[in-house]
Design a protein that fits this description.
Layout lengths: L1 H34 L28 H4 L3 H9 L21 H11 L3
């Protein structure tokens, strides 16, 4: 009936709003982790749009979804870049438990917007 259709539409709209807010929250958390100096400190070595006092030791973190279309590969790069390059200067953030798996994933979510 009409009332059921109206209620279904309301539930769908609320669901979309909730998922959108959850996604925005994850991106904000990823941005905070990317730019903070306590954990990730990505700006110490990388140039990232929106950052300040950026380093130039590592490559600029732009076009990340194009550069790393395989999300798992980027995850492994952040987890332990030494697996791919024994001479890397990038710390093994995951292996040394500087960042959790969840933190790496929200950082990737944020970087994929760059």
């Amino acid at each position: 009936s009409r009332r059921i259709i109206q209620l279904t539409c309301i539930v769908l709209l609320l669901s979309v709003s909730w998922f959108s807010n959850a996604e925005d929250s994850a991106l904000e958390r990823g941005a905070a982790l990317t730019f903070e100096t306590a954990n990730g400190n990505c700006l110490a070595c990388h140039e990232i749009e929106g950052g300040t006092q950026m380093g130039d030791i590592g490559p600029p973190l732009t076009d990340m979804a194009k550069r790393f279309p395989d999300r798992a590969r980027l995850y492994q790069q952040i987890w332990d870049a030494g697996r791919f390059n024994l001479n890397t200067l990038m710390p093994p953030y995951g292996r040394q438990q500087v960042l959790t798996a969840d933190e790496i994933n929200v950082i990737i979510d944020f970087l994929y917007t760059k």
